[in-house]
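Q: Here's a chain of 188 amino acids. Please give me its 3D structure as tokens.
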Amino acid sequence: MVPKLYAAWLTVISSSVLSGCSMISNHQPRQSNYAVSFSIDNTAPFLRGVKGEYQTQFDVNVSNWSQNYDKKSCEVFLIVTDKNHVPVTDLETNSPNQFSYGGWFNRNAENPVLESLGLQPFPTHATVNNWFNVGNTSQAASKFIARTNQPVPRKDWRFVIMGLRGNRRGGKVLWTKVVPPSNVAIPR
């Protein structure tokens, strides 16, 4: 009986290794496991704008987004921000099953990092609606709409992928990836 169980266990382990699957989740997310691109989308918006607000629509492509990390002590966010220091007042997606608000964040950890990158930090006086968690998928495509109270030049939009460790009371930014729009010439 024991040799059969051992053989079955070895079969499961070897097939997982050969398929590239991990039996144990990584303790923290690795930067190399995340890739996103976006472009400014000039087609008709999927939502109407609110009077007095500006909105920009993006085509978003998540080509790699690992779900293999300790979700109790780590988070990975997709943040929509800009170099013009205009706060995003709202962020919407046409794929709510793939992108959602949720999880924890700590402005004391994220904001100094965003500021050091020359980007608009999370607002401290309002509800934060400029970031998403990517659902249980490794690839996704969607349209996003970011709303602001002032116009943002197309070249100044940035998506930030941010890996964090900690909890609501305290956190540490592990790494960031800053992504410019793919269809706008960015001056060097």
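Q: Can you summarize the key feature?
A: The longest helix spans residues 2-19.
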